[in-house]
## 1
Amino acid sequence: MRVLFICIFTLYAGAVFAWGERGHRAITEAAALRFHDSLSKQESTELERAAGHFIRDRRYELAHLSNIPDISWRERDRFPLVAMAGDPNHYINAEHFLGEPPAEGTAEYSVYLKKMAELPAIYEVLLKQYEGTPSRLDKSNKALFIFREVGTAPWRGQQLFDLAVEALKCAAQKENPKTPIKGRFDLYSQLKLERKEMRSLGNIDAHRYQCFTSAVRANDLVMATAALGILSHYIGDLAQPYHTTVDYDGWHTGNGGIHRYFETDVVGAIGPQFELEIFEAASKGLSLKEELLKNTKWKETADVIREENGVARLLLLLTANSYSKITEVRAIDDRLSKKKSAKLAWGESPSIGLKGETPQMERLPPSDGRVQKAFGPLSIQRILLGSYILSELWKAAWISAGKPNLSRVDPKTKKFTYLPYSFDFPFIWPVYDRPALKRIIKDF
């Protein structure tokens, strides 16, 4: 059963990384700079400035945390259950709900994107509407397992946002305690699960973050920092067009291998001006809201976030926007390619063990000047868009938590506050889909 499950899981997940470490770091650091600058104006309050400094001073830690989902949470040899529960959090394949897309540029295509952006933001509603229904891409009428086959990136973002708010609220309650809180930092021991404990939802629930009034404030601030940093990863994923489609690696259109080439190889080959351009644009407060206005019904970012499950709604809007860019990426790829790859069915790729030769598209080296000129600006645009949305979400989380005091000086003792650096972080289980976790654990 275990071998069979792993094979089926690989078929649907694809297990590909978005942007590579460099891209995810850039998104996070740019968001931190933008967050700081937006709260450090002349008219800003002392609390706003403290929040801005808190994020800016931890931008390297936040950037490190943004890569945790692609590093330690995908160690299949050590923690296969973590990888199985974590991989579907990186993508969303809405074509299973909507069918094949109409021709780009048509009125029908705009309607298609609108339907994608307006999928249920409440995960339970999505399950009730679609779980067990046949995929509109699969002629076999096989019942959909949404968590694994469709993916849950927008709702993963909602979960991490809510977790950050919960931890920041807890920290706010401890700003001026009537009696000193004694104890030591023990967050990791609270969250960490041993391998044998992972096969029980009861253990997973017992090791989730909770606001303990008797625990030191550092527990809550480190949890909030981790949630905000890890949230960055999934925002970055959804800003990458090929994380929003069943054809995640381009094999259906003869662009086999495009996923890694576009997001990792090309970005990795850009010179040091890559970060400089992104950070400069972020520090200027460049607004990319207009980019989201295309093809989607849009309101002010803050208004969307305040809706019920507003973060998931915002990320569905981002999903539709990213999906609309697939054509642009593919057109550049076609123009620069030497030879198209084999064309496969929707969702198929050589990584799932197809028989016969399936050669990738023959491309120019990613460092080639023509490739950099064509792909570089689009990569930077997507990364900037991700950083803009991320900084808005961070600000909304802090405001939703009641604007806690994040000064480096403890409000009560007036002493410098030291927070442990999170070199790694225990897996945060996607408990918004408990039936899926039960099914994964049972089939393992």
## 2
Amino acid sequence: MCKAMEEMRKEAAAKARIESKIEDAIEMMKDHFSIDRIAKITKLSVEQITEAGRLQGLL
């Protein structure tokens, strides 16, 4: 049971890190950073950044 709880905690932390990076990427898009530059800084994929930008109406 402890291993399952630890795995859930790790997954939640990883998801929170990605969500934080996506929020940062959105702010960078608002400041007119290039998609490639955002990918380099955040370590997100171009696809993740493009999808977030489209959902926010930025692309």
## 3
Amino acid sequence: MDQSLQRIKQESKVECETQRELWDGNLRGTPQTLPGGTSFATPRRVKSFCPGPCTIAILTACSLFGSGKIDGAQIDDVLADMTRVSPQELELSLSKQQPQQLQLIAQRLEAASPGSGSAEKIGVFFKAWARVDATSAFAGAIHLKNASLRTKALASVTETTGAAGAKPLVASLSALPTEVLPMSQRGFLISTALVIWSEADPGAAAAYLESISPQGPDYYMAWSQIARRWALKDPPAALRWAEARGGNERGHIVLFGVISGWWEKEPGSAEAYVFARLDSFEGQRMLAALVKDMFDASPEKAVRWVTQLTNGQARQNSCMAVGVLWANNDPKAACAWALSLPADLRSRVLNAAMGAWTTNDPQSAGQWLTELEGEGRDVAVDAYCAATVMINPATAMQWADTIADAPLRQRVMNRVASLWMAQDPDAAVAWIQSGGFPASEQAALMSVRSPR
């Protein structure tokens, strides 16, 4: 940093000593008119603290830049420190400036070279600005010329706006022309704002979502999360809304969201609702969604719960779902649990867990098999072969040949050979012929050859 900015830091210390009492108390946004005639400024309360050197430099440099006393190159040096200060300090620094000054600073950040971390700084800057005055921060964001940085700024404002300001924010985002907010980004930002709105008024957020007839996967999150938040407040009302949506995919998303929130609020009632519908395909899907929520909240409780289900199909499907979820976090524990299950569950659950494990890390799954001993090893190898045959059939065949139980070994090898023949018959035949198998076993494997 050059000498002029060092001088700015020194001079600012004196100035800040006389203003320090103004850095406490209420910070209130200055309402401005946005697209749709709305304003969503919210008051902020910030605790007292002593500003550090970087904060002092940013505060003073912003003031001098806004008044034309220093040039862009000089403030660029100061803004390089922006990501090193706390959000609270940056918020207080920006609260001392007028919206016009903040817009000039945003333009300087936008003009910085891509390698300078401009996108990160834009995000940090607009989050701090939105905490001071969300309305003027939104107006500043839409005036950025760079499309990606403009979207970044709008996302930062959206994430920072509280539930009380989310309704006008949704209206403002919806009113933006496509050249300002492209359709590719619009759905995600509006969905995010709608979910925030639903924290305060889920019914109104749901009604607005229906009124705009949204299309595309960006809105799936909004349907699900609004339903979930509504069920956390009023399960019967949320359930009525979900059941009125019908049996299409959107209706299922809403219903699963309701089950999720309802289970958090009243687990017994939500479980009873799902259990009463287990004979239907929709009920089985609800159960899968419920198991995921339960596992995310407490894996131990989910494991106990699914193994105690009395409905056989529900028990099997739920245990398989837990096996996959658990394998994504702790595959050794998931597979060990699967091996401990009764015979009617063991193979299917182990196949599910091993499938998830080999998809994520086939090497460590194979290593686990080399260390495994006892009765469950053959079942585990069978599951591993089923998971790897489409990726690496030669490896699957090698593992299948290590199964101790002769009838099971033959079944697994036949299955692998059949699938391999369908993929690459020449490679499969060459491997079988060079594998050193007895003539009878080689003939049996060759007999499953698929027609070309």
